[in-house]
Design goal:
Elements (H helix, E strand, L loop, with lengths): L5 H12 L4 H8 L3 H8 L7 H17 L5 H38 L3 H19 L30
Helix pairs in contact: 2-3, 5-6
Length: 159
């Protein structure tokens, strides 16, 4: 039997939350299944979906990088890390801005502040979720009864 420290307990619980079975944990940490069962009792395996998503992403990444040289792979990974870091920075900044705007709106009673809050919220939404494609604006005016068609004809004049 292995020694059970607080750090080991935390690691066992984290592994269990990530989807490792209790029997596998008992083998990995050289503990009895009963000890593992007591530690993991009433703890949900809440990170299983995250693990599965990351595994699928890693598989897709490996397939995408097949046939690339190590220099190309290193370059791609470096650029992805940099872009991810930048994107997270701006997303976190947008969330902070939104929190401040929400607090300011609570204290305000002016319509101009409400409009400013709306613009800030829209910009923050674009920062976090990306810009949405242009939408087609349909004229749904009920009184519109005729369709105007404009044709452009090019006429060549013979000299």
């Amino acid at each position: 039997m292995g020694k059970l420290t607080d750090k080991t307990k935390e690691q066992i619980i984290a592994d269990y939350k990530a989807g490792v079975s209790q029997n596998q944990l008992a083998k990995n940490y050289k503990l009895s299944p009963a000890t593992i069962n007591k530690l993991c009792k009433n703890i949900p395996q809440e990170n299983v979906e995250i693990v599965n998503t990351l595994v699928n992403t890693a598989i897709a990444t490996n397939r995408a990088l097949e046939g690339k040289t190590q220099i190309e792979v290193n370059s791609i990974e470096r650029i992805v890390d940099e872009k991810t870091r930048n994107l997270l920075y701006f997303q976190n900044a947008a969330l902070r801005n939104q929190k401040i705007a929400d607090e300011m709106l609570e204290m305000s009673d002016k319509i101009a502040d409400v409009e400013a809050h709306s613009r800030i919220t829209a910009r923050n939404k674009e920062t976090i979720f990306g810009k949405e494609p242009q939408t087609i604006i349909n004229n749904t005016n009920a009184q519109q009864t005729e369709v105007t068609e404009i044709r452009r004809t090019i006429v060549k004049l013979d000299k």
